[in-house]
Structures are given as structure tokens and as C-alpha cells.
Request: fold
Amino acid sequence: MARVSPVTTVLVVDAGAANRRFVVTLLRNHGYRVLEAAEGEEALRLVRAERPELMLVDMFSPGADGCEFILQMRCEPGLVQPRVLLRAAENLEAETRALAHAFGASFVAKPANPEMLLAVISATLSEPAPAGLGNAPDRQSLGMLVQPIVKLVRRVAERNAQLEVARTALDLEIKKRIWAEQELTQANRLLHQQAMRDPVTGLHNRRYLDESLPREVSRARRRNRPLAIMMIDIDRFKEINDTLGHASGDAVLRAVGQCLVTGSRGEDIVARYGGDEFAVVMAQAAPQIVWQRAELMRQGVRKLELGGKDGPQLGPVTLSVGIAVFPEHGDDGEKVLQAADAALLRSKNAGRNRVTIGDGVST
Reply:
């Protein structure tokens, strides 16, 4: 839109400072000379002194009696009358247009986008300047005409303001409840995560394993793929606890747990099953791959150097491992788990520090 001549003066009348600043800045950026007033007496003084070509008046902003001001201006003898553009909420358009017609003014809804507001201002400026009424009888007649409309619109505006306050309060209450529900959901999620974690090692715990295993077996059955379970026991762990204390035992548990995570795949489930026992669930893994992973874990733990310096030496630490595979060693999760536990027992009976798979093959 082309800029207008800077000699075009616009007076913005609005009791709301934020609304007034927005319109003033917009018009100044488009080349208008802009004056501003917050109430009628100040606006009338500026009309007398500055003779603006256009007044942009917010009819129903709090504390501003736009109707009385415009009526007084229109009836003042000898005053150069500006064009008037009334602004009001869109739901008050019909009533405000009636007032605008009575005052020889135009109407624009608020809030209006800047392009629309500038277009209406430009169109209003192209209209002929209005003539004043100039005598008291006309003013009295016009006042009697517009006052019922003004009272009606003011009641509507007040009611709308009350509804807006109630709506804002309701929105705030809804937001508070949503925030509270989100916080509660987050807290419950955190509690659930904590309930599924072993506090010593940070691994998943037996509860998580018990919840996850049926789901993993169901997925393996649907896809017709194998599912392997390792049961892992730390050899002679009771001797570490009894000799060096539970703090040293916890250090061993943490180190072994981390070594198991390092030796597993990202999609595997690594859990502390209880005491010094761990479990690893491996989906879609052939028995040979599972065996290789178990050996990698066993050898990794065997190489751990624990303790020393200011504390006792805790190594070497060895593992006994038992492996069972679905559906070869059981047709559900519980049976496969029991088969893996039986294979673990065979590893320990065969001398510990070894891996046994299924019915007794070990290394």
C-alpha cells in the first residue's frame, strides 16, 4: 500500500494505552501525522487546535464516553469537522453502525488486521468532510436519538466484558487442571520407572522382566522368531559380601551390571533378577549368537579389575551362565526361564565360570 502524504493528520482516541500505541505506531509507519488522546476533553482540545482530517475513536473503551464527545464536537459552532471512524468489537457492529450513521461516521471492527485497518482509513479519508450541526436544538434531538442506542450497546459491552472475565477465569482454571494432571502423570510415570529399576545397579528389575517377558514371547510367536533368555549368576558372591561387606558387594553388582549392558545389544532387556542373579532377554537371536554374547559377557567380567588402592582387591570375578531358547526349550516365557535357570545350575555344578545352553552343552 502506498504511503500517504505526511500532512494528513489522524487523531487516535482510545483509553487503552496498548491498543492506542499499536494503532499510532502502525499509522506513523505509513506516513501519517498521528495525534493521540485517552479521553474526550483532551481529544476535543486537539481537534480545535490541530484540525485533524480523521479521528479514529474506540467507542466503548473503559473510561471513555465516545458518544458524548463526538456529539459535543459535531455541535460546536465553527469547528472544522474531521471524518470519524468508530472502532468497536465485531459483535457490536450493528449497534455501532447505527451510531456511526447518526454521527456521520464510518465503522471498523476490532481487532482488525493492519491491512484491513489501513484500507478502511484510506477509504474514509476519500469521503467528503462532514459538516457540523452547530445549534443546540439539533444537538438535543440527536442526543435523544442516540442515547437509547448508547445505553443498549453499553449494557451489551459490559455483559461481554463480564463474559470475557468469566471465560478467562475458566480458561485459567482449565489450564491449572491440565498442568496438575500433567504433573501427576509425570510423577506417576517417574514412580513407575523407579518401580521398574533396581536401585543398586540401575538396571531393570524382576518386576519389569515379569511384565515384559510375556509380551516378548507373544511377539516372537507372531513373527515365528526365536527368543533367548540368559540366567547369569556371580560365582561365590556370598563370600564377597561376608568377607568384604555389602558396600563391596554392591560395587561388584554395579560393575557386573554395566559389563552385561556393554556386552548386550541395544534392543536386549538386561535386568537384575535378584540377589546376585541377572537375566538377559534377546529377541530374534539364533542360539549361536546368544552363546557368543554370553561368552563376551563372561570374559568381560573375568577381566574386571575391582578394588585396590584405598580398598581391598575384589577380583577376579567370574560368571556362570545358563541359556534357553523359545520355542526349543519351552512354549511360554515361564518355561523358557525355568530351562535357562536349570542350565545355569548345570554351569555351576560343572565348576562355575562357564556357559551352558539348553540340555547341557557348556564351555
